[in-house]
Specification:
Layout lengths: L2 E7 L3 E8 L3 E9 L5 H16 L6 E8 L1 H7 L6 E6 L5 H4 L2 H5 L4 E4 L15 H9 L7 E6 L7 H13 L4 E3 H4 L5 H31 L6 E4 L5 E3 H6 L7 H14 L4 E6 L4 E7 L2 E2 L7 E2 L2 E2 L7 E4 L5 E6 L6 E8 L1 E2 H7 L1 H13 L10 E4 L10 H10 L3 E3 H4 L3 H12 L3 E5 L2 H7 L8 H12 L13 H27 L8 H6 L1 H7 L2 E2 L3 E2 L6 E5 L3 H12 L3 E2 L7 H8 L2 E13 L2 E6 L2 E5 L2 H22 L2 E17 L2 E17 L4
Parallel strand pairs: 1-4, 4-9, 5-6, 5-7, 7-8, 11-25, 19-22, 25-26
Antiparallel strand pairs: 1-2, 2-3, 9-10, 11-12, 12-13, 12-16, 14-15, 17-18, 20-21, 20-22, 23-24, 27-28, 27-31, 28-29, 30-31
Helix pairs in contact: 1-8, 2-8, 5-6, 10-22, 11-12, 12-17, 13-15, 16-17, 16-18, 17-18, 18-21
Amino acid sequence: MSLLLGVDTGGTYTDAVLIRDEKEVIASAKSLTTRRDLAIGIGGAVEAVLAESGVDPSEISLASLSTTLATNALVEGQGGRVGLVYIGFREKDLAGHGLSDVLNGDPALVLAGGHDHAGGQAAALDVDSLRVWLRGEGASVSGYGVAGVFATRNPAHELEVAAIIAEETGRPVSLSHQLSAKLNGPKRALTAVLNARLIGMIDRLIAQAQGKLSALGVSAPLMVVRGDGALISVEMARERPIETILSGPAASIVGARWMTGADEALVSDIGGTTTDVAVLRGGKPAIDPAGARVGPYRTMVEAVAMRTTGLGGDSEVHFVSEGLKGGVTLGPRRLMPISLIATEAPEIVHEALDMQLRSDLIGEHDARFVRAVPGVSSDGLGARDGALLARIGAGIWPLGKVLGNRLDAQALKKLVARGLVQVAGVTPSDASHVLGRADAWDRDAAQKALTLFGRRRTGSGNALARDPRVLAQMIVDQLTHQTGLALLECAFAEEEDSFGLPEDELARHVLTQRGLGSHRGLLRVETGLAVDVVGLGASAPSYYPAVGELLGCRMILPEHAGVANAIGAVVGRVTMRKLGTVTSPSEGRYRVHFEAGPEDFLDSETALAALEKRLRQEAVDDAEASGAEDIHVAAKRDVRTAAIEGKPVFVEATVEVEASGRPRIAV
């Protein structure tokens, strides 16, 4: 008998499951995710499943971890302060390719150097300028991203820069060619920056998970779920945390398939911060050929074709004042629900809410609170940002008491983006408590907060909603509407027939929206989904039946929908993919672009065979290092030719190798 422990650390909850022989869930549990110390939430969930099952921790054969922390961090713009070394590009490329927006004030150095498309050196590497920058502007960061022109054809300059950074600083370095073997330098640079930004966060998560499991007596090896649903070793996850973006959502797709056996369906997973939608075709989640997209970022990370929207149970509720009736909209930022923070500091929260309710004035910061997140590095903060963080200290405060002016509000945004501070406010979770759909936290605090929110004036001069239950239903209806839009966007994007417009425009088009209401006039317009939807997430039973009605489809809510991520974390496989390229810089020369540098061969078949052999070995080595056994290897070639005088001439070829096996079970 094998016992598998799956753990998923989400933005709001940490889930744990125990599965016997990969066939049966014998225990499941949830615990609040504790951002100040993730081990507390992990320990709470694992202790609960051990108690429910009566299993001795030493009997567990394998433990695996999936997480939405990296995904949520990118959606919310969080992560450590990093530096970018951009080799062989131009200064204006930072803004032209959107890297300035990604850096958001973090330092960058555009450095002379780089290679050409054939792997030859285009310019000498400016080592002196690099050392000066590392000792000056580039010193106050937690890690570095490095990307060079055509580094996938010759990574020599990236490797040299990494060695110098290690010598000068000793801090982590993310090299773009190690994260993707594909061309597109700016996108590789973006991926390297995000990877560097996530290293500290994922390292802390893994260390805390390992420490807690060991303390509980679980000695089984720990794996981590990658963004394509495959399992990897904790060592690889620490080096390449970017590969864990969409880890939680990918695990949920694997879990959905395991629970339902569905072959053709949309899978929609609602968490605290995001809603993740993917398509199952032939029982398998599709891999996004363009790289994982999370929030505004298109990375070069291989992951499931997932559409992630900043919409969840803990999404920020925004007041819409336009129009006579006004309204609300949700996300993309996550807030701590008022009903939850009230359980941690009931006297402070209720006293502030009662005082605000007694006032005749509608305050800008009514029903909002703030607290610091301990244990997160505050290196590199400006004077005003640091002063605000010190003012917040270790307490929980009404937001209006810590913000003195508009500049403080800007400082707060920076602190939230760095993950140093959490803001609490009205969320759909609070609305669910008011409507009696949830009872885990403080319903009275939620009701007071919604009463305050509902006093805001619309365009007609009237209050948005005098009854908190009316406002709560308005919030839930808006969540239903925005979830429907997310599902429609995914469906339009995956349709084989193009409709000629971007999927977001199609989902919001007046004909689509009228069709959801089955418009009848001279025209009959109907819109809906022609496939089932598998609804996942702890709050799916509360929200998703209405989504199914809106879209006219069958909504499948599996028994263990609330812990699908944790299930998927331990029923997946270890899979390693390696990609390499052969080019022809001149007639009769076939160049293989190895990690150690380019190597030339006299004929294409010899070059392709040499590349495939190397990639097979690397894929198998990585799979074994990640704990795989019974490994199967498959390879495919894509050879591109051009017709010259009626004869095919070799232009370029890629070789992709996949090594896959089940994780080794401890005995």
